[in-house]
């Protein structure tokens, strides 16, 4: 049995689907049983509950040979870092109490830093909590910037004719598709590796700048001259609050953008066979981004 947190999300859901297709017994976890019903129809066991509830997590992990753990984001949380700390502590306690022997964790590039990286700090804290559990084997997956993050600019591109963020347009950045993270997680969950603690970075096919990203998007949506605009950090924070994020979360995104620009969020390993993932950004844009653009 393999337990999967966040099965209604991109990486958890992708991993659960791959494992079920491979004939594995899977227990899918999430807040809503309704959102997990498709997995139940394919033979998965459903365990719905709150990711801050230690008793729920302990029950859901008990009997599993391996577990995929993550911290589902709540972008409206009034104090996001406090919520991360509560959730991280609950996950670690549930893992320890259930005695699940192996864990694959969704972390992030930048988790080598202990401060100043926005929401990534909470992922580093969860890595440390899991690493401290005696007898537990932990693989921390540290992907780069999700391709899916670019879906947040669909309205900007369509309505204002620009693409933008607070990240330097000329900064090469590791970027990866969530489906490739799911594939790496499923592969690791099926393995029998008992290494106490290991890290695997996921970089995508190549490191890309935001200007290169913008060029690809512009070509796909019929705006070949689409410009990239780097926003001031304060403007980014205000825009995110206007989109419904809490001031806490928006501020952390601003801090994360600054950490990218200052070189504190960066790969620690070179792009190569162990870090490269298969999905080309161009192919993802023609599939997921273009569909979202047409629907907007």
What do you see in this structure?
The chain is α/β, with parallel strands linked by helices. The protein has a domain of about 170 residues: NAD(P)-binding Rossmann-like Domain (Rossmann fold, 3-Layer(aba) Sandwich), CATH 3.40.50.720. About 45% of the residues lie in helices and about 15% in strands. The chain contains eleven helices and eleven strands. A seven-stranded parallel β-sheet has the order 3-2-1-4-5-6-10, sandwiched between helices. A two-stranded parallel sheet has the order 7-9. Strands 8-11 form a two-stranded parallel sheet. Helix 5 links the parallel strand 5 and strand 6. Helix 1 packs across helix 7 and helix 4 runs parallel beside helix 5. The radius of gyration is 19 Å and the shape is globular. The chain starts with a strand and ends with a helix. The model has no long low-confidence stretch (mean pLDDT about 95).
């Amino acid at each position: 049995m393999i337990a999967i947190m966040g099965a209604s999300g991109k990486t958890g859901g992708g991993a659960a689907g791959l494992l079920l297709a491979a004939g594995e017994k899977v227990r899918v976890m999430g807040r809503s049983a309704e959102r997990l019903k498709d997995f139940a129809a394919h033979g998965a066991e459903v365990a719905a509950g709150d990711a801050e509830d230690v008793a729920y997590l302990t029950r859901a992990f008990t009997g599993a040979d391996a577990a995929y753990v993550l911290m589902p984001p709540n972008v409206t949380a009034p104090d996001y870092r406090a919520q991360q700390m509560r959730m991280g502590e609950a996950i670690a306690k549930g893992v320890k109490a259930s005695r699940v022997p192996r864990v694959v964790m969704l972390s992030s590039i930048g988790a080598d830093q202990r401060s100043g990286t926005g929401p990534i700090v909470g992922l580093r804290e969860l890595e440390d909590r899991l690493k401290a559990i005696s007898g537990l084997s932990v693989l921390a997956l540290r992907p780069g910037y999700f391709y899916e993050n670019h879906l947040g600019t669909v309205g900007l591109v369509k309505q204002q004719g620009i693409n933008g963020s607070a990240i330097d347009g000329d900064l090469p950045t590791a970027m990866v598709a969530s489906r490739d993270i799911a594939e790496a997680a499923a592969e690791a969950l099926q393995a029998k590796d008992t290494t106490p603690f290991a890290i695997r970075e996921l970089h995508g096919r190549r490191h890309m700048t935001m200007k290169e990203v913008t060029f690809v998007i512009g070509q796909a949506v019929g705006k070949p001259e689409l410009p990239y605009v780097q926003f001031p950090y304060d403007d980014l924070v205000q825009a995110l609050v206007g989109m419904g994020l809490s001031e806490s979360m928006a501020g952390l995104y601003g801090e994360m953008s600054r950490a990218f620009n200052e070189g504190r969020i960066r790969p620690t390993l070179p792009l190569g066979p162990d870090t490269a993932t298969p999905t080309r950004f161009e192919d993802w844009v023609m599939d997921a981004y273009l569909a979202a653009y047409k629907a907007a």
